[in-house]
Each structure stands twice: as structure tokens, then as C-alpha cells.
Amino acid sequence: MPRQARVAPGGLIYHVLNRAVARLPLLQKPRDYEAFESVVAEAWQRCPIRLLAYCLMPNHWHMVLWPRADGELTAFVRWLTHAHTMRWHTHYHNTGTDHLYQGRFKSFPVQSDEHFLTVCRYVERNALRANLVERAEDWRWSSLWRRHCGVPEAREILSDWPGGIPRNWLATVNRPQSQAEVDAIRVAVRRGQPLGSPAWITRTAGQLGLESTLRPRGRPRKQDHDS
Fold first, then answer.
1. Is residue 119's pLDDT more than 50?
2. What percentage of the chain reaches a pLDDT higher than 90?
């Protein structure tokens, strides 16, 4: 039986993405990934936002965040990206003047029904989709690995999902998603457009002032892959 469409208690859920400038390597070796996860933990200590899912990739990262109050998401991601940028420059003996990220992070709200599960599945199978591992849970730098293989202390930064995690989640993540699901998420990433049922999208766009994201645009841009 499908889940009833609703807004998650305590506010909207968001998918967040940021990418290295010019798609250059952002995380090049295990120590880079470890350092980034340390910055995530520090950011969470400073601003304990609900972190539902994430995946770190060589030139970008995804997070699914569930803020409790206005401004919480921006405060968390802004501190995270600034701290990571400064430490990256220090580690690589860079002058610190060059940009590391392509710009402000991209985000879109997602309905807390099957659309939320679709987004989390997309995020947690990102490394598998990019052929970096044979099974999604083998990718060390993700919430899926952290939940299934991490020590209890490492799981503390991960929050419970609205409605809970499905029992067959691991098998679900390892199954390919339809192209329609992947395309819908990539459109939402590119345009900042809410993802959910048609009625929910219209209502949420109106509440957040995102009506422009729903209007038809000109010639479509080249599709981003693994975004």
C-alpha cells in the first residue's frame, strides 16, 4: 500500500548537492574522504541538523537533510563548505585564493513519501551507478556503509527517517532505478524544483517562492550525469 502523501513532521526535507569547480577532483584519496567526514561531524556538532543520507564522490557530494528551523540548512552547509575549503587548501599547500566549489550549493525540497525514498536510493547508490563498487554498501564514504558497517559512534550523526527505513532497503538500493526516476531527480537538482506529487509540488513551490522553477524553459542543457 503506498504511503500517504504528506509533509514530514518538523519541516521539509531537502536534497543538497555541491560539486568541485570545473568538475575537478574534490576527494582524491582515502584521507581526503576521512577529512571531509570529520568536517561533516564538526558541522553537525555546531548545527545538529538531521542528516538522513549522504554519499561522497570524487568530484561532488550529496546529502539529504531535514532542518528543524529556517536557516538551519544554510548555516550547516555554509560552515561545512567553508571549513572544508580552508582545510583542503592547507593540506594541498594551495594559496587559498582559488575556488574549490563551483558555487553555492544546489538544493530542492522533496516530499516525505515514496519520493523521499527515491531520492535516498539515488543518493546511496551513487557510487554503484558510477561503477566504483560492485554493491552500494561497499562504498565506504556513504550513509549506507555507515549504517551497516560503521561503529555505533559513527552512526550517531544519522537521524531516523520519517516512516522508518524499509526492511528490504539494502536490496532496493542495489537494484537499478528507472531512467524516469533518475531524470526527475536530475531535473530537480538543475532547477531547484520541488520533487513530489503534482499537487504537493505546486503547493510547496508557492509556499517557498519557487514558482519560477516550474515554468518551461528554453533549450534544455546537456544532461548532467551522476549529479
1. yes
2. 68
- Identify the band that residue 155 occupies on the pLDDT scale cut at 50, 70 and 90: confident
Domain that holds residue 20: 13-214
| Beta strands at 60-66 and 13-19: parallel, antiparallel or unpaired | antiparallel
Q: What span, in angstroms and rounded, lies between the C-alpha atoms of 115 and 121?
A: 10
What grid cell was written down for 149? 558497517
176/128 Cα distance (integer angstroms): 9
Supply 65's cell numbers: 537533510
How far apart are alpha carbons 25 and 48 in whole angstroms? 28
Decide: 111 and 203 in contact? Cβ < 8 Å.
Answer: no
Helix (H) or strand (E) holding 121: helix 114-124
The enclosing domain of 143 has a CATH number of 3.30.70.1290
| One-character DSSP codes across 197-208 | -HHHHHHHHHHH
Q: Chain centroid to CA 157: how far? A: 15
Residue at 222 is within a domain: no
3-class secondary-structure state, position 107: strand
Q: Is residue 224 part of a domain?
A: no
With b for 16 or more beta-carbon neighbours within 10 A and e for fewer, the 112-130 pattern comes to: bbebbbbbbbbbbbbbbee
- Number of domains comprising the chain: 1
